[in-house]
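User: Here's a structure from my thesis project, written as structure tokens. My advisor, Dr. K., wants to see whether a designed sequence matches the one we expressed. Can you design one independently, without my sequence as a hint?
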């Protein structure tokens, strides 16, 4: 399965998961799907048969409200069965709404209170350096999350300690929970800010698989600096009526027109070489 195919499956699972559980954040999940697909498919070193492999790369989803995307990719990568995705956000399920490491193989750190992920990742990167370990730490933040002071404190620490094993990816969809970032606290110019903090800074299209892969490869050869990949994305990417619409930060696709149209749009984009994992269920619903 290539990254485009994997990203489609992440989006398809996410729509089903949020619809069934009536949970939030489908817009954020869709915007980060391509980043997660490339990272897990082409870049990160891990073993689903040995989730605690000592030299595995560590991946932290700091924007933990998009946890359904990570659960989906872990299931597709055989950390657990895809059938378990049906339990997302259900009472007693280990697949909580905000991503949790409790009992979930492949999750390094529970997140949801924004601004903490980069600090934890910087600590992991520092420890790896001290121990002479070869692995990288990848952390995915939201852009609204970059309004948190802890993010910039961690940025200073990472630069000061030359943590070139730390790679931050910012899902720069220009929106946060209640509106556009520029209308709440402007982050512009974001590229120049990160460069001023001494980071190796790469600005890319966050939905272009080749560009993302090349950015990760550039990060891997940074000799003395931590790297930030500013991935320009579209909130709700892949479903036209969700794109750049703040309503879909908290809303889920309801039964009827919303859900049906979302599925129709996704199925129209189905890449060659894969099938919809919910084909049988769709047929049963139509009967």
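Assistant: Designed independently from the structure alone:
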């Amino acid at each position: 399965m290539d990254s485009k195919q994997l990203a489609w499956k992440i989006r398809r699972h996410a729509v089903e998961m949020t619809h069934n559980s009536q949970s939030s954040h489908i817009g954020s999940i869709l915007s980060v799907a391509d980043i997660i697909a490339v990272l897990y498919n082409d870049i990160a070193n891990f073993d689903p048969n040995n989730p605690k492999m000592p030299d595995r790369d560590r991946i932290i989803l700091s924007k933990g409200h998009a946890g359904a995307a990570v659960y989906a990719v872990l299931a597709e990568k055989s950390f657990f069965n895809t059938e378990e995705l049906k339990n997302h956000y259900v009472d007693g399920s280990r697949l909580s709404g905000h991503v949790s490491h409790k009992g979930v193989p492949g999750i390094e750190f529970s997140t949801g209170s924004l601004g903490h992920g980069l600090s934890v990742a910087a600590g992991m990167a520092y420890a790896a350096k001290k121990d002479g370990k070869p692995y990288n730490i990848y952390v995915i933040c939201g852009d609204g999350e970059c309004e948190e002071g802890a993010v910039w404190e961690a940025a200073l620490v990472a630069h000061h300690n030359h943590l070139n094993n730390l790679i931050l990816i910012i899902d720069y969809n220009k929106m946060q929970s209640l509106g556009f970032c520029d209308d709440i606290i402007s982050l512009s110019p974001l590229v120049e800010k990160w460069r001023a903090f001494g980071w190796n800074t790469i600005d890319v299209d966050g939905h272009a698989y080749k560009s993302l892969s090349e950015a990760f490869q550039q990060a891997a050869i940074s000799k003395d600096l931590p790297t930030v990949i500013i991935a320009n994305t579209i909130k709700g990417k892949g479903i036209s009526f969700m794109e750049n619409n703040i309503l879909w930060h908290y809303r889920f696709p309801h039964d009827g027109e919303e859900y049906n149209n979302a599925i129709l749009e996704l199925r129209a984009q189905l890449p060659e070489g894969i099938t919809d994992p919910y084909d049988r269920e769709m047929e049963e619903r139509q009967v």
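When you compare it with your expressed construct, this may help: The radius of gyration is 18 Å.
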